[in-house]
Prior knowledge:
Oligomer: single chain
Largest sheet: 9 strands, mixed
Distance between the termini: 40 Å
Amino acid sequence: xxxQALSFRVICKSMGLTAYAALSSSVYxxxxxxxxQLNYTTHHNKTIEMTKRKVAYYYDPEIGNFYYGHGHPMKPxxxxxxxxxxxxxxxxxxxxxxxxxxxxxxxxxxxHTKDYVNFLKTITPENQERFERQIxxxxxxxxxxxxxRMFEYCQLYSGGSIGGAVRLNHGMxxxxxxxxxxxxxxxxxEASGFCxxxxxxxxxxxxxxxxxxxxYIDIDVHHGDGVEEAFLTTDRVLTVSFHKHGDGFFPGTGxxxxxxxxxxxxxxxxxxxxxGIDDESYEGLFRPIMTKIMEVYQPGAIVLQSGAxxxxxxxxxxxxxxxxxxxxxxxxxxxxxxxxxxxGGGGYKIKNxxxxxxxxxxxxxxxxxxxxxxxxxxxxxxxxxxxYNLHIPSTADVENRNKKEHLEKLxxxxxxxxxxxxxxxxxxxxxxxxxxxPEAVQGSRHYGRQRTASSDAEDSERAGxxxxxxxxxxxxxxxxxxxxxxxxxxxxxxDSSS
Length: 498
C-alpha cells in the first residue's frame, strides 16, 4: 500500500501538479482497488453517518488568486487548499455549498466609515503614491499592503460572512462555514493585522436584527481586538477571546482585566495565555468558561473565529495545539444546538491551516471519525509532505509555560466576572431590513449534492487556478521548507498578524 502510494506521488510529480489534479481520481481508484486493502469510496462515495445539522459552506474559487505580496505571511491560497481537501474527502456532498454575493460599499458602511471604504475601493498598487497621507491615516503599512484587487477580496470574504448571517437569521442553516472570513483586527476606519474589512462585525450586526444576544468566540492566537472594540459598550454582544498576551505580542491588548465599558462591562471576556499551551490545558479553560457563558448569557446565535495560528508549529503563533484540540472547540460549541457562524482567521503554515479547517468541516458535519488520516490525492499533495496525513500533532519538546496555578487563576477570575452577566433583551423597535434578501442567499448555490468523480476532479482543478510567477516561486520555497524539520524561523512572533 505504501509503495503504491509512493509510486503514485512520483508519477504525478513527474507530470506536474496540473496533470496530478486531472488524473488523481482515476489513477488512485485503480491503484487502491488493485491492492485489495482500500478503495476509492473510502474518501468519496462512502455513506457517512452525520448529524442532522444543516451545514452551509461558502466558497468562491477566485479567493485563492488574491496575493498580499512576496514574503507576506497571509496567503488566501490556503483557503483554496482547504477547499480541495473538502472536495477530495467528499465532505461537500453533505454541505450546501454557495458562492458568496459580494458585499457592497453600503454593506461595509454599516460598520466602517464611508471615507475609509471609498479609500479601499479607490487605491491600487499603481496609484498608491498619490495617497501617502491616507495610507498613514488608515494605518496601511507593511502588514497591510496595497495589492491587486484588494477591494474585491474584501467584498468576497465579507459577502460570505454576511450571507451566512442571513441564512442563520432565517433558519435556512444550523451552521454556516466561511473559511475565507474571520479577519478580526480591522477597525472602523483602520486596517490592522492583515485585515481590511471586519467581516465578523458586519455579520454580528446582521445577526442582531433577529437575535437579542450574540456570542462571539475567538480562538486565534492573537487577541480579537477589532471585534471587541466594536462592541465594547454593549451587552447585546458578548466577546470572548483565548489568545497569547504579553512579551510584546501583537496586538498587545486583551489582558484579563479588560472587561468592557459602560453597559458592556463584563461582556468582554479575555483569557490571556502564555507560550506553549497544549490541548489538555486549553480544554481545561475552554469548556468550563464556555459552559458558564452559555448558561448565563443564553445567546441566540454564535460566531466562532477559528484562527489556525494557534496550532503547533505555526510560523507566527506560539501555542502547541493539535488540530484535534483546536477542533474540540467547534465540537463542544456545536453541541449546544445554537445557530453558529464558523469563520477562518489567522494561520501561516498553510499546509496545517488547510488540514485543520478540513477536519473541522468534518467535525461540524459529525463525520470526523470516518475521515482517514492518510490524505486523499489532491492537486496540492506535495505541500503536505513529509507525512501526507490529515492530523497535526502537538510538538513534543515544546514547553507549556501555562502552569497549573496560572490556569486556575484565569479560570476562577473569568468565572467571577461571569457572575455579573445576565441575559439581556433589546427594546421593541422596527427591525432594519436584511443586507441581503433571503432569496439572494438561496440563489447563489453553485455545487449540488449529486456529484461524480470526474466533476470532483474538475472542481479541484478549477480551484487550483494558476498563481503569479512570484507566488508560484514563493509557494515552491514553502513546500520545500515545510518538508524539512525543524521548521525555519519565521521571524519575530510579535509581528502583526490576523
